Fold this sequence. Notes:
Blueprint: H1 2-5, H2 26-35, H3 38-55, H4 57-60, H5 92-128, H6 130-144, H7 148-159, H8 166-193, H9 196-203, H10 208-220, H11 222-244, H12 256-263, H13 272-299
Helix pairs in contact: 2-13, 3-5, 3-13, 5-6, 5-8, 5-11, 5-13, 6-8, 7-8, 8-10, 8-11, 9-10, 11-12, 11-13, 12-13
Amino acid sequence: MSDLNTVTAPKAPSRRKPKEKKPASLWSDAWYDLRRNKVFVIGSFIAVVLILMAIFPGVFAPQNPTACNLADARQGISSAHWFGLDNQGCDTYARVIHGARVSILVGVLTSLVTGLVGGALGLIAGFYGHWVDVILSRVAEIFFAIPSILGALLLLSVVGRDQAGVWTVVIALAILAWPMVLRIMRAAVITAKNQDYVTAARALGASPWRLSVRHILPNALAPVIVVCTMNLGVFIAGEAALSFLGVGIQSPNISWGLMIADARNRFLMAPEPLIFPAVFLSITVLSFVMIGDAVRDALDPKLR
């Protein structure tokens, strides 16, 4: 009976506040999707290996890429030389590994330069409009009329082979590529500045600098990131094409395009010095294209 008459006291309510979930954003949702995208994971893995190979070539190939012996020229694949020897008797494997640095560096620097220049000018053109937009758009159309490789070939021919280095190739490619980024950024800025949150910020007295940098730029940056990521592979291929034509990177620097150009005349006698840099070039371009496609799908709300 005592057990029946016993009244259990109610438990005091817990004072712990429930954890508030952070509001989802475009970038967090995109990263969530990218981590589960097999195309992005595979492309990123390949790109990371290539970037590490470019930063630390000695770890992947301890052989000296400039140690050549003409007496051993065009020897085939062996245990000592995994990719054979080229026309000068240099180890092809070592040169392929060390050649990744120049090729990837040109691609990364050109993407950064075009993204910064084209993005800044596109932000200005889209935000201010009127005569500023007209002038910048007409200037961009002039550069659009020039084929990229042909224009870069002409610029590097004027500069001369002796002056052709990494930054020379980067500037030649960036001069003809920034209008694409400008046009994409301009369109994104025009769309973003007509949104309600920008109108509210303007009504509260936000300055033009705060409106453009704080409110418009973060919401207009996604398409520019996608284009710069996809263009990275295009610029690597462009550097290889210019070096192959003899106006890009020059010896003693090592570049995949330069290796392909040196090996083309003896391809039937020794195909390895041409095949392996071409394969690495194709894999590099493909990896960055895969990353760009995945990033585009993740950042485009229409594809969700």
